[in-house]
Amino acid sequence: MNKLTKEINSPEFSDYKSIIDSTCASYNKKFNIGELDDIKSQGYLIFIEAKERWDPKKANFNTYLHHCLKHYLIKYITREYIRPRKLLNGIDAKYNYLFSINDYITNPLSIEIIETILNRPESLQDNTKYKTCITMNKVRKGFQKKGYKIHDINKAIKHIQNGLCYE
Fold it and tell me: Do 70 and 22 meet the contact criterion of CB atoms below 8 Å apart?
């Protein structure tokens, strides 16, 4: 099929907007994202890309668009929402908690650990593909290098985790 024929049969956005919107709403609800406008924007971009790549000889545009939406929305949601949530289950999820308990801590090592984490030095960060995060292993190793015993470090971390930061 030549380019002229493809342009004549070219799908119009207005014909597919409701399909894109309903698919995006479905994935937004399924993955509990709460950012429907963001997901819809991504769906519209997927439509533009699908329109450019569509080959009428291989599939009906409706079928091709549905496949593209499914594949690329899941990929987008995973990259932008699911993986960051999983990373936040580590020490970064405790970030707000650390701010809130910082005033109530009396254990000097716990205070130093919290302040170090809140300052986010590069020596404690693991650079992953998706986000820079601080890991507890890096915290432990960093404080071991400062001369603290692993038992004391683990005890201070446990106090922070339990909110029982006292001597």
Answer: no
pTM attached to this predicted model? 0.50
Q: How many Cβ atoms sit within 10 Å of the Cβ of residue 30?
A: 11
Same domain, 61 and 116: no
- 121 sits in which H/E element: none
Residues 137 and 52: their CA atoms lie apart, in Å, by 47
When divided into structural domains, the chain yields a total of 2
With beta carbons less than 8 A apart as the criterion, state whether 165 and 104 touch: yes
* Each residue's pLDDT tens digit, 147-163: 888 888 888 877 776 65
Helix 13-30 × helix 36-53 angle, to 10°: 130
